[in-house]
């Protein structure tokens, strides 16, 4: 219980935080004339973004819902088919596979990326020598375009001319000689690993920043109380990183849910349907099979699940009511 | 029709809308006298009308230059008529034209592979019929099948023909005293011999899925003749259960089980050049590929082609099969078609362009110079002196004498069938799908797709 004191100290600080100036400030206390002016100004300020939001987000979303009830190949007049497209979704084995693959990608991505990002983030936030050199190296994948990453890994993993095959021959490492992108039991994990390789640097940055914002006084207090490195981690670092973990987690999960580009370029869902995520299935059904109605069903499902997961995570983790837990951290 | 752009039009570039709008405005303003030569449109006369034409490009190529030169020669001989040539990138073309068609605002002249996609447009009333013009006889008859629908011709060849052959490494065959097999059983024993010498028998870029389809196309034709594929393309009920298809799929799996393909054949992409490299570097003995493989190997290893190491052979026959050994599969040609949304004046200009320029010997000559094999009749004399003359002549003669030139199924089928077929055929190649499973799935897909 040694390191509890600082956390308890932090709590009153939050309760005693001064109310925001806006709530108690002059604007709402002003006369009616001023209030009307403010409303007009508010409207003028909110109007353009609201219009853009409707134009580019609300209208397409509503259109997708409407389209999910028609059969249409992009030409001629759409034909109203009621719930037929939705019924098709529940009978479609490919869609079912895609849902499972998507779930696997989401869960695996989270489980792989979180610990590695946290470890690297805490390491690069430290003050040891060459830290900035390491940090620079870790962040390099962040500078590369997604298509570039996909093509690079595709050529590295080529079973005939790839670098891993060359390594396996010259160093006699037989296990490196694999059909990385064509083995139904392996390819999904390869893809998840490459996605992790792409995104870990970003989450590493989040964790590094999060760690650096923890006041040093907490660590001093913990040290005085006799906490070792493990206790310090569990009782100071981890609780203080809570919102970083939530932020990073939401970004990972929602991002993985709609992930498309690397999979599209590297495997396009193959071998078989083993890496066909739902977004890829939707693309295929819409733009290669020209079934815009059924593809809209997939789009709506993807959209609704994505929003539900994001909202759920925000609620469940208390992210919405996020407030500083730190004393004097500002 | 001046339809308002639909909600799917977002991807069409502003420039093309602008171009289409300008073209429409110009066409409306057109009046007075000028050449109106098209069949059935000669009543309308055009002056200063502009036609927008979309062609597909995979990057700046000699063929693009030839097309651009053709347009300027047309504009010179038809003063007042203009053709605006837009090159659209290959990958995005399919979507772009689909959106433009759906929005009722396509370019007056558009590029097409023919087959199932063009048929969709024809059925939707989006394509202008050329009827049966007398000048269409200046193309090899087998080249017009992909653009003929219910006896009417809807498109005219604009670029060369691309049949599929086996391309092989002659040095490997010479080293082990092998000749290229002419029968399927001969191919299987060649595969076994090459394997015993530690050479990968066949290179296959099935990460793209369409290279595997070439085996199914040829085997089906060799076993059951061209009528099988015709029935499939017409979405005939139960067509996929044809015994010829079953045997073709079984033969494919036999080849896979014999270890004919390199490791990782199911994830290799043709565009990366890996499947070619296996052949010219001597790691693999052969590859089944369209005739563009000659120029793609030429670009990677010139001396391999010019030194005479690249062999080309027709697909083997299958014992007991009813197909003609001279039958071909592949892309018969690529085409241009006229949108029915075009104004009468635009149609007249487009027809005149097709009739006066695309049929001309000078264009056939320019195509040959650009490395293409044109489908114009009497083009065989044009290859003399070209770098790849012997290949080109063989290809041209085989197209000319082919009793049937089967159009690539992924283009010939309707999109709804084509993509399910590709994905599941790849599973047949991975031995994770049985011929019967493949057939019942495709029968179902064909039944639902109309």
Please provide a written account of the structure:
The complex is a heterodimer of chains A (about 325) and B (about 450). Chain A is built from 15 helices and two strands. Chain A has about 325 residues and is an all-alpha fold. Chain A has a single domain (about 85-315), classed as MetI-like (MetI-like fold, Orthogonal Bundle), CATH 1.10.3720.10. A two-stranded antiparallel sheet of chain A has the order 1-2. In chain A, strand 1 (about 70) and strand 2 form a beta hairpin. Chain B is of the alpha/beta class and about 450 residues long. Chain B is built from 18 helices and 13 strands. The longest helix of chain B is centred in the first third of the chain and has 16 residues, at about 15-30. In chain B, about 55% of the residues are buried. Residues about 1-45 of chain B have low confidence and may be disordered. At the A-B interface, helix 3 and helix 14 of A face helix 3, helix 10 and helix 17 of B.
What secondary-structure arrangement, pairings included, does this model have?
The complex is a heterodimer of chains A (330) and B (450).
Chain A: H1 4-15, H2 21-24, H3 32-67, E1 70-71, E2 79-80, H4 84-91, H5 93-124, H6 131-139, H7 146-156, H8 163-170, H9 187-212, H10 216-224, H11 229-240, H12 242-257, H13 261-266, H14 278-288, H15 292-317
Antiparallel strand pairs in A: 1-2
Chain B: H1 14-29, E1 50-57, H2 62-77, E2 82-89, H3 90-102, E3 109-112, H4 115-123, E4 148-149, E5 152-153, E6 155-159, E7 162-169, H5 170-175, H6 184-196, E8 200-203, H7 210-224, H8 226-233, H9 243-257, H10 274-280, E9 284-290, H11 292-300, H12 302-306, E10 310-313, E11 328-331, E12 334-338, H13 344-358, H14 361-369, H15 389-401, E13 405-407, H16 409-412, H17 415-429, H18 435-448
């Amino acid at each position: 219980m040694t390191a509890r004191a600082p956390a308890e100290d932090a709590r009153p600080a939050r309760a005693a935080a001064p109310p925001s100036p806006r709530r108690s400030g002059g604007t709402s206390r002003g006369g009616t004339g001023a209030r009307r002016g403010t409303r007009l100004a508010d409207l003028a300020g909110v109007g353009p973004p609201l219009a853009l939001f409707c134009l580019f987000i609300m209208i397409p979303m509503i259109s997708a819902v409407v389209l999910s009830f028609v059969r249409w190949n992009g030409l001629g007049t759409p034909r109203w088919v009621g719930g037929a497209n939705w019924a098709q979704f529940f009978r479609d084995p490919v869609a079912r596979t895609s849902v499972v693959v998507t779930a696997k990608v989401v869960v695996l991505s989270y489980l792989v990326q979180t610990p590695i990002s946290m470890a690297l983030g805490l390491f690069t936030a430290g003050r040891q020598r060459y830290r900035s050199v390491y940090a620079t190296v870790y962040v390099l994948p962040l500078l590369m375009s997604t298509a570039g990453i996909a093509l690079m890994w595709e050529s590295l993993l080529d079973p005939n001319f790839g670098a891993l095959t060359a390594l396996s021959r010259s160093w006699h490492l037989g296990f490196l000689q694999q059909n990385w992108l064509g083995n139904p039991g392996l390819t999904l994990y390869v893809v998840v690993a490459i996605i992790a390789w792409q995104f870990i640097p970003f989450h590493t940055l989040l964790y590094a920043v999060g760690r650096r914002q923890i006041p040093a006084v907490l660590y001093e207090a913990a040290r005085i109380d006799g906490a070792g490195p493990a206790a310090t981690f569990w009782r100071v670092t981890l609780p203080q990183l809570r919102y970083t973990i939530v932020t990073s987690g939401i970004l990972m999960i929602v991002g993985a849910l709609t992930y498309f580009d690397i999979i599209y370029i590297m495997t396009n869902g193959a071998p078989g349907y083993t890496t066909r995520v739902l977004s890829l299935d939707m693309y295929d059904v819409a733009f290669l099979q020209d079934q815009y109605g059924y593809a809209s069903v997939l789009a709506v499902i993807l959209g609704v699940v994505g929003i539900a997961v994001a909202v759920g995570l925000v609620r469940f983790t208390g992210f919405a009511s996020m407030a500083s837990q730190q004393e004097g951290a500002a | 029709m001046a339809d308002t752009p639909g909600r799917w039009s977002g991807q069409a570039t502003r420039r093309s809308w602008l171009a289409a709008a300008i073209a429409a405005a110009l066409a409306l303003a057109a009046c007075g006298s000028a050449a109106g030569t098209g069949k059935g449109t000669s009543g309308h006369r055009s002056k200063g009308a502009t036609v927008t034409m979309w062609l597909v490009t995979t990057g700046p190529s000699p063929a693009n230059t030839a097309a651009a030169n053709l347009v300027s020669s047309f504009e010179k001989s038809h003063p007042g008529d203009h053709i605006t040539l837009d090159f659209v990138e290959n990958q995005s073309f399919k979507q772009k034209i689909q959106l433009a068609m759906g929005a009722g605002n396509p370019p007056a002249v558009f590029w097409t592979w023919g087959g199932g996609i063009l048929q969709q447009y024809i059925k939707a009333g989006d394509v202008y019929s050329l009827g049966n013009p007398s000048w269409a006889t200046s193309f090899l008859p087998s080249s017009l099948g992909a653009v003929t629908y219910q006896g009417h011709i809807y498109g005219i060849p604009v670029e060369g023909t691309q049949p599929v052959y086996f391309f092989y490494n002659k040095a490997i065959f010479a080293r082990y005293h092998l000749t290229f097999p002419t029968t399927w059983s001969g191919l299987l024993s060649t595969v076994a011999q090459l394997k015993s010498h530690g050479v990968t028998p066949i290179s296959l870029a099935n990460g793209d899925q369409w290279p595997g389809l070439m085996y199914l196309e040829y085997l089906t034709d060799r076993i059951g003749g061209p009528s099988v594929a015709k029935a499939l393309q017409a979405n005939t009920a139960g067509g996929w259960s044809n015994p010829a298809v079953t045997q073709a799929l079984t033969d494919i799996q036999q080849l896979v089980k014999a270890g004919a393909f390199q490791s990782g054949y199911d994830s290799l992409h043709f565009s990366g050049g890996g499947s070619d490299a296996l052949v010219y570097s001597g790691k693999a003995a052969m590859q089944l590929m369209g005739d563009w493989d000659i120029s793609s190997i030429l670009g990677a290893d010139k001396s391999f082609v010019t030194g005479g190491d690249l062999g080309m052979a027709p697909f083997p026959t299958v014992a007991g099969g009813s197909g003609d050994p001279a039958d071909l599969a592949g892309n018969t040609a690529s085409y241009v078609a006229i949108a029915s949304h075009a104004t009468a004046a635009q149609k007249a200009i487009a027809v005149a362009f097709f009739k006066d320029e695309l049929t001309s010997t000078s264009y056939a000559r320019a195509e040959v110079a650009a490395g293409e094999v044109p489908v114009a009749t009497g083009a065989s004399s044009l290859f003399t002196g070209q770098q790849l003359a012997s290949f080109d002549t063989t290809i041209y003669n085989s197209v000319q004498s082919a009793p049937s030139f089967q159009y690539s199924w992924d283009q010939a089928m309707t999109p709804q069938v084509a993509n399910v077929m590709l994905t599941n055929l790849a599973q047949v190649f991975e031995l994770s799908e049985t011929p019967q499973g493949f057939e019942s799935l495709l029968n179902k897909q064909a039944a639902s797709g109309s």
